[in-house]
Amino acid sequence: MRNLFIVLVAVACLCGCDRRSEAERFADDLMSRMTLREKVGQMSQFAPQTGVVTGPEGEPMDLNALIKAGEVGSVLNVKTPEEIWELQRLAVDSSRLGIPILFGHDIIHGCKVIFPINLGSACSWNVEAVKESARIAAAEAAAMGIAWTFSPMCDVSADPRWGRVSEGSGEDPYLAAKLSAAMVEGYQGEELADSTTIMACVKHFAAYGAPEAGRDYNTVDMSERMFRDRYLPPYVAALDAGAATVMTSFNDFNAIPASGSRWLLKELLRDELGFDGFVVSDYRAVTEMIAHGVARDTTEAAYKAMKACLDMEMVSGSYLNSVEELVKEGLVSEKEIDAMCRNVLVAKYNLGLFEDPFRYGGAERFAGSIYRPEDLAFARSIARESMVLLKNEGEVLPLDGGERIALIGPYISSPRAMLGSWTAFRDYDRTVTIGQGFEERFPGKVTMTAGCGPYAEIDGGIAQAVRAARNADVAVLTLGLPGEFSGEAASMTSVELPQAQKNLLAAVKAAGKPVVVLLTTGRPMALESVIDDMDALFLAWHPGTEGGHAIADVISGDHSPSGHLVMSFPRCDGQIPIRYNHKATGRPLEGTAPDPLISMKKLYKSCYLFTPDTPLYPFGYGLSYTEFEFDSLEVVDKDNIHIGDDVTVRVRVSNVGDRDGATVAQLYMRDMAASTTRPVRELKGFERLHLRKGELRVVEFVLTAEDMSFWREDMKFGQEPGEFRLWLGNHSDATLEASFTVRP
Ligand code: GLC
Q1: 167 touches ligand 1 (CB under 6 Å)
Q2: CA distance 460 to 727
Q3: What domains appear along the chain, each with residue ranges and CATH number?
Q4: 642-668 pLDDT, tens per residue?
Q5: Residue 403, Cβ density class (10 Å: 0-12 exposed, 13-18 middle, ≥19 buried)
Q6: How far apart are CA 666 and CA 264, in angstroms?
Q7: What are phi and psi of 390, to 5 degrees?
Q8: What CA–CA distance (Å, rounded) separates 169 from 567?
Q9: What is the bridge-based pairing of β-strands 536-539 and 515-520?
């Protein structure tokens, strides 16, 4: 059968037509020989009973029997390269047409070499590094036999109660768009048929990052304008980068579950955005339309998903179980089935699976492709760049190596605190913990004690920690959230430190030595209630396989911290959701509100009675061991700018400190008076800069007409004349300001 595929592929190539129609010609020819069930089989994805678990259990099914019947298009969550090839061998040799299986998995921040969680890597603002991390992840995954990753996650979110913020690129659509596109390019490379590149998957379509109350899977309801302005751009950027697939989200979007939304999946995704790949549901999301209350049974759920042009169903099996009835009743035509099946076959063709079903994977290739030294070195580098120095009172950091260090806290020896969620192929014994990193970098200088668990006290733990602190020159506390508690199904009503950790911190602070907190977490945390107990606060996120090394690299001063926040850090839970790019309101608070207990007056401003409306640490913020200054902000030709013109902006950045370092120059814009309310600031340019001490550089940004466009009152995307303000600096509260007017 494979020889027939090779001949057919050759014929398709000989006809010299473009790749898509070549693939379509091949797919149509193959479909002419397929039964209805075989076609819907290509539209069905299953997971092995013994596979990695990434969703709720379902009814048992015989995967091997389905594969032999030619009724499995894709399999996800297989654990080993050997099992992948076993299943592929079964499909190719035992099914009637021998159509290869497409193997998928969530390789979202590394396969074997684990990189920082995506929210961490995003804080590097290093687009090329994020792309490279995707490329490495793809190479390891492909070597395992995985030809499709369910990544990038493009869901914008400003709500740290939602555990999946760890998987995305933060609250800003402009930055998330750049990073999502970079990941697609990293995964897919120049040629999908290359055996080291894999298909990307734009997820979760759409607006999954805005669930009511920050509770996973919850309702999303917003105006189309808000969706298009704030949530859609990263999906579009990833599609424009050529993403081969899209995954629907669990949530209902404006009362229609995404997996059954013809507006989202046909009218917007295909007709307006021109997507021609294939769409897969999320895990059981098709039959979850019953729980959503929009389908009476699995047949109606399958019907709604098919009519929405959802090409492939993940795991719930309703397509296979309902297709004959739906076609017999005339509810779904075989032509509609062909269109969806074709999208899946074309993807397999483009991956080269018909030419060689074993192009990806093989135990020997896998063993020789993972944990390459250069990839581990890269993981250490991007981990360093992902970490954010938030506080450094009295320049406690960097440690100069002479101090006696009391390393305290529940995460000292936790590999999972380094890896975070979605790391199914991790190896704890290859993961460098914080304790290992410190012992290597500060030999003979480190004493270690847990002090408490992540959530529970330890008998005598605090007393031991206090003693250790008293006998040291500096106390370094590893605090935050466990790696297991980020990602999916990990929503929290509070993002404060657990009480046991607060108690430990207070006790160690009272010991009277400088306190450095290393925060490992998959989400922003509310730290105002404890920040005074910290002399230095260093945000490590879940930094990956090389996390312990990277942390020691920066804490020791071998490298200067250079990460900048991509999500605001709230003062307290009550501020959530909090974002820098909020609207002004008709009663914006200027400056800070006086204490109402003294004034006993209300301000009639959009603010809280007892809490500032500003975050503890704003979007874009991050300290260095050196100092940067921004000046000479100039709008080129500012008096002669018209609709459609690009606007060139220049600024001078200087490293005025006493050591080399990196920062991120960030350009923010505000449209001062438009036909709709606009954010008080919007990121519209950034550049990561490494400057030697004393070095200065002029940086140029170009604001395009598109950058100044938005979904206007007439619901058309475009520019409007008027006054614009600009700010330039290395955080979203930058004060260096300029303005210009766009004339008609
Ligand atoms: C999960 C996640 C999705 C993932 C999929 C397969 O439920 O929502 O992000 O890609 O199932 O594991």
Answers
A1: no
A2: 52
A3: 628-742 (2.60.40.10)
A4: 999 999 999 999 999 999 999 999 999
A5: middle
A6: 33
A7: -100, -30
A8: 8
A9: parallel
